[in-house]
Design brief:
The chain is about 60% helix and about 5% strand. The chain is mainly alpha-helical. A two-stranded antiparallel ribbon has the order 1-2. Strand 1 and strand 2 (about 65) form a beta hairpin. It starts with a helix and ends in a 5-residue tail after the last helix.
Length: about 140
C-alpha cells in the first residue's frame, strides 16, 4: 500500500486546519501558503473532505473551512479513507480464490490490513496537535 500525494497533502492540510481554526474559518489560500501546496489541489482535497463531512465549508467574504462535527476526534484513518479509499495492502479477488490464496488472505493480507487500520484509527487530529505543540515547545527551548 502506498499513500498518494492526495492523502499526504490532505493529512497535512487537516493538521494545519486543526491548528489554525480554533474559532474561525480558514481559507484554502492561507493553508496553501503555509504548507506550500497548490490551491487548486487543496480545493479538490477539501471538496472530498467536505462531502464526507470531515470538514465544513462556509461561503462568502468571511468564508473558509473548519473542522466537521467530529472535530479533533477525527482520526488519521477517517481522513485517509476519505481521500484514498480502503486502506488495503492488496486488493483481494474473492471469486477466484484458490486454497493458497485463502491461506495468504487469512494469515498475511488480512492481518496486515487490520494492523494498518488499527494504527490509523488510533491516531486523532487532537493527538497530532498535542504532539505538534509539544515538539514546538521542545524545539524552541534554549539552554544557557
Amino acid at each position: 500500500m502506498k499513500i498518494s500525494t492526495k492523502g499526504i497533502y490532505g493529512l497535512k492540510a487537516m493538521v494545519d486546519l486543526a491548528l489554525n481554526s480554533v474559532n474561525e474559518s480558514i481559507t484554502i489560500k492561507s493553508i496553501s501558503e503555509r504548507q506550500n501546496i497548490s490551491e487548486s489541489y487543496l480545493e479538490q482535497i477539501f471538496s472530498i473532505l467536505s462531502k464526507k463531512k470531515i470538514i465544513k465549508s462556509k461561503k462568502g467574504a468571511q468564508g473558509g473551512y473548519s473542522l466537521g462535527d467530529k472535530g479533533n476526534s477525527t482520526t488519521v484513518g477517517d481522513i485517509l479513507r476519505a481521500l484514498e479509499g480502503d486502506l488495503c495492502v492488496i486488493s483481494q479477488d474473492k471469486q477466484e480464490e484458490e486454497k493458497i490464496d485463502r491461506i495468504l488472505n487469512i494469515n498475511v493480507w488480512n492481518k496486515m490490513n487490520n494492523s494498518i487500520n488499527k494504527i490509523v484509527d488510533s491516531i486523532t487530529l487532537y493527538q497530532l496537535i498535542e504532539e505538534y505543540n509539544k515538539f514546538d515547545e521542545e524545539y524552541n527551548m534554549y539552554y544557557i
